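testing teh design pipeline on a random one, pls ignore if ur not involved
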């Protein structure tokens, strides 16, 4: 994705929770990216009972540095009891905002 762009990130549960579930998130800058290069990643997302989807808006902050190799890895922190992560779903968004699914 190009700097200055936003993308909506969806975190989903595969089953309907019977209680509130909080899933911790983290963002790690790679290839020289740091916290000044992006915003919008919450420290966690909370699902109410009967909710299976939460969203947040990730922003790639524009600057004057040509940094084609920067990327950000979004991941889960320690998951609560009874919650497990599915196989990673990775998307690479290049400077033209074309996204490809990685396996």
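output:
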């Amino acid at each position: 994705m190009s700097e200055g762009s936003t993308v909506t990130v969806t975190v989903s549960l595969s089953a309907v929770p019977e209680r509130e579930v909080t899933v911790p998130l983290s963002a790690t800058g790679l290839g020289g990216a740091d916290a000044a290069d992006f915003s919008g990643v919450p420290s966690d997302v909370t699902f109410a009972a009967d909710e299976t989807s939460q969203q947040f808006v990730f922003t790639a902050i524009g600057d004057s540095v040509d940094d084609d190799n920067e990327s950000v890895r979004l991941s889960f922190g320690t998951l609560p009891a009874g919650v497990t992560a599915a196989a990673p779903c990775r998307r690479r968004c290049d400077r033209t905002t074309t996204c490809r699914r990685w396996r």
